[in-house]
Every structure is written in C-alpha cells, then in structure tokens.
C-alpha cells in the first residue's frame, strides 16, 4: 500500500498501542466490560498527553543546557491545541489562515511552535531564522523523506523532491541551461503577442467603450505553460503537429493534469501521515500522471532521435536535449522535465497576474512604468536584454510585486539534527531534530518590523539605491526567490519573460491616471462585477470606505481575494477589462 511506511507506525502509535497497553494493565483487575471500554477510549488522549509532555521535557532540557530557549508554544484553549487545529480547519480561506498566523505572531513573536496534537511545528516570519535555515545551516534543513514520499509519484527524484547528492546531481546538470545566454526575450515574444491578441479588445479591431471582462489569471496560466514548454522542449503548443491523437489529447490536458497532481500532493501534505487512508477508494494522481507521461514521453523520444542525428542545430538546443545528452536514464529525464515545468509554470503565471493587478490598482505607478518603457523600448521594435536592463523602475515594480505577492508564499524544511536558531531579538531558540520549520515568506515580506511602517503600501521606490543590479540577493527580509544554495534557478527566465510581457502589454495601453496624456490605447481596470459568485472580496475586509476594514486584505488595500493555492493566486481569477 502506498505510504504504508509512514501510515502504519502512525496508526500503531496513535490508535493501537494505547488501548493495547490499557488492555494489558486491566487484565489482572478484570473490571466490567463498560469500564474496560471507557478505559480503552480514555487511553488514547491520556497517552497522547503523556507523550506530548515527555517530548516537551526532551526539548526544554537540551535547550537550557545550550543557553537557549525553545520557541514559545502556542497555548490553545483545549488540550493538544485542538482548538488551534479546528480554527485552522474551519477558516474558509488562506487569507484567514494568514490572519491567524499574524495574530499568533503578534502574541508569540516571529518564531513559535504550534504544537498541534503534540507535534512540533515551528512557524517563523523572522528573517534571521529564515536565513539560518536556508543559508547558514543549509545542510541541516532538508525537504526530508516525509515530503518526498508524498510527492514521489509526481516529482520522482527530480530537483524539487530530492536532497543531498541526488539534489546536487540535478542542480549541476540543469544549472548551465539557466544561464542568461539560453534565455532571450525573443523566445517569449511570439507567445506573449499571441496571448495579447486573444484578449478582448486588444485582439479586436477598432472598439470604443469598455471591453468584455476576462480572466487575466487564466490567460497568464496558459501563457506561462506555452513559454515553459517551448523553453524546455522546443515545442509550440498551438502549432500543428504529427504526433497522433494520444499526444494531441495529452497536449490539451497537460496544464490541467499538472494542476490536479499538484493539488493532490498539496492535500497529502495538509493531511499528514494519515494521507493513504484518504486515498483508499481512488488514487488522485493516477489519471493526471497518465496524461503527463503521455505528453512528455514522445518528446523525450524525439530528443533522443535528434541526439543520434549527425548535426544538431545548437540554436535549437533545449533543456530536454541537454538532459538526453547527459543521461540515458529516461525516468530521470522525465522527472527533471516535470519538476521544472512545475517550478516554472504557476510561479511565472502568479507573478504576471499580480503585475497586472499592481498596474490596475496603482495608476500612478502604471504611468511611471509606461513612461520608462516607451522611452526605452518605444512603441514597436524587437525587445532585447539591453532594453530590459535600461528599465530600472520596471525592475523595482517587479520586485515590489514579488515582495507583497510572492508566488511561493511559504516554504517548509525539516531538521536532520538539533540546531540553535538565531533570532532578530538576539535570543537563541533550540530546535530539535526531525522538526518541521514553516517559513512564511509572505508574512515576513509584509512585516512592519522588517520593512517599516509603510510595509503594506505598494511602493516600488523603496527599491531605489543601487542594489537592483545585484538582483536584491542580499536584501534582508526578501526571500521570494528563496535564499542560499537552493535559490531559484529560473530567476532569469521569470524576469526576462515578465519584462517582455510588460513592455508588450504597455504598448497597447494609454496613461492610467490622465487620459489626455496617453494618445491611443486603452486603460486596464479591475472588473469586480465579473468576478464569479462567492469569490468577491468580503466587504468586512476592505471596510466601508475601502480603507481599513478588519485588518485583512493588507488592511483594506486589496480589491481581490488572495489565496495560497499551491502558489499565491486570486480566488476565482483576476477579472479585468480594457477601457478606451
Ligand atoms: C516568479 C517566478 C518564480 C518564483 C517566485 C520562484 C521561486 C522559487 C522558490 C521560492 C524556490 C525554492 C523552492 C523550495 O525550496 O522548495 C524555487 C526553486 C526553483 N525554481 Fe523557481 N521561481 C520562479 C520561477 C521559476 C522558473 C520560471 C523556473 C524554471 C524555468 C524555476 C526553476 C526553479 C528550480 C529548478 C528550483 C529548484 C532549485 C533547487 O531546489 O535547487 N523557477 N523557485
């Protein structure tokens, strides 16, 4: 049975062992059956509490010996913090979970232990702690066997799902292909132009007044899939092909199949060790994985045939060719392609979506971006790296979007050995071995203690000051690309694609704040009226006057409902329209 190696010990420990122990103890006393049954039942919570207290003691004494303290434990109203778990489960959206984390953070500081059901789970928004885990004590903080086993059928042993030597192998194999020489704006331009042409109004001929509203998030998801598959495999998804019916079906379904596989793995992560019990009836990964294999396998075969051909056109070399040249292991090649498609698609789609959101929400920022782009890139002509380099304000705009809306809002690691966490308050916190650390990048990047009183404001100007060229790698409190040896490899891809997209989009648009300045073109507006039922932002979050509310939605600044659905996304889609 899948996952049995984790499920069985868990079931034994939590459900079988306590009544068994009670049975052995009661054997001599022979109480009436009803008393026996009550004792069996009570044995479950009693043993749970005893184990919890023991593990607490085991953490506190080494912490004291090391001159440190354990992270403060959340003190719920009910034993084992069941109320925290219930609040967590009850809260209808990620926004509410985020708010709970903010509230817990206010009470317990930047690093605390939820200890739900007696299990250590340290949550942090402290930049020092995050830096320690991702950079300074990198070898000790791993993805771990538990995470790996939950994603094994989907990600295999690929870069995302491996640690140690395997991870090093994958990283060094693919790293050269992420060099900016393999990533040119011209690679993205045809896909972006075709995406823009399919948008209402931009695609149509002369049109006055507001256009039909459409879901920009969906459009960005499709665009990112097309760009990533082309870069990985050299295949244009909308071009005719001769790979047969089965591949055609896989081509149409691969985006959705990736989404389903990701959400099945995400669900396993949330459920924990007992996930196999929830998959007894059906394997949620079976169907999506069939589509994903049917998509990639013929492409790998084509790359193998290309390898055998006498002359390979270097200009047309793609990552798939590099993988095929480096190994004969088809499973490894496929794992790596799936991992990188996963890494590239939703993250880029999320960044592009929130860039459009930021432009629509902040007309004055839009006008600055537009002015810079038009004075550097003009209204037409090819886009190249020099043009992108000469758009520093646009880069600041992208950084600010990544700060407030990081596509990967949190990251999880597990300790191999005990460690001392250096915190921003100067205190050192003891973390035992085999303990999960949840790093909430999104909360750290919105934290006033880290970014100042205006942390919740969208202000690209905060990135002024010469650091931009270094990609803000060392900026304390910014980890949208991750930090340290596992830092995102795809940064040049995502940035080049996003700059190219912004340049091409802005060429179609006029000034947002002053129509008289703009000339031809449209403005882009959010279309809350088109938002599907049940996905509009609740009024209590934004407040009557659109300011303040109850503290959620960046204290009422946001006008859409933001959720963390594997990556950061807008609930129900980002509905916008172009207005002449
Ligand atoms: C805005 C877009 C993107 C953001 C914000 C982003 C962010 C991240 C983050 C936070 C990680 C660390 C994940 C972890 O530790 O579990 C990561 C890893 C990674 N990213 Fe990205 N990413 C983006 C786009 C891309 C793209 C376009 C590609 C490929 C074309 C890519 C390839 C990778 C790879 C291969 C890794 C794994 C690195 C490793 O474990 O050594 N990313 N990315």
UniProtKB/TrEMBL annotation:
The residue ranges crossing the membrane are 6-26, 33-50
Determine if Kinase is one of this entry's keywords: no
**PROSITE patterns referenced in this protein's UniProt entry, alphabetically:** CYTOCHROME_P450
Q: Would you tell me the protein name for this molecule?
A: Cytochrome P450
Listed InterPro entries: Cyt_P450 (IPR001128), Cyt_P450_CS (IPR017972), Cyt_P450_E_CYP52_fungi (IPR047146), Cyt_P450_E_grp-I (IPR002401), Cyt_P450_sf (IPR036396)
Q: Name one Pfam family in it.
A: p450
Annotated organism of origin: Dioszegia hungarica
Q: Where does heme bind?
A: 488
Keyword DNA-binding belongs to the record? no
Q: Where is the composition biased (Basic and acidic residues)?
A: 544-555
Q: Which cofactors must be present for this protein to function?
A: heme
The record's family statement is: Belongs to the cytochrome P450 family.
Region annotated Disordered, chain positions: 513-555
Query: Its Gene Ontology molecular function terms?
Result: heme binding; iron ion binding; monooxygenase activity; oxidoreductase activity, acting on paired donors, with incorporation or reduction of molecular oxygen
Q: Which UniProt keywords apply?
A: Heme, Iron, Membrane, Metal-binding, Monooxygenase, Oxidoreductase, Transmembrane, Transmembrane helix
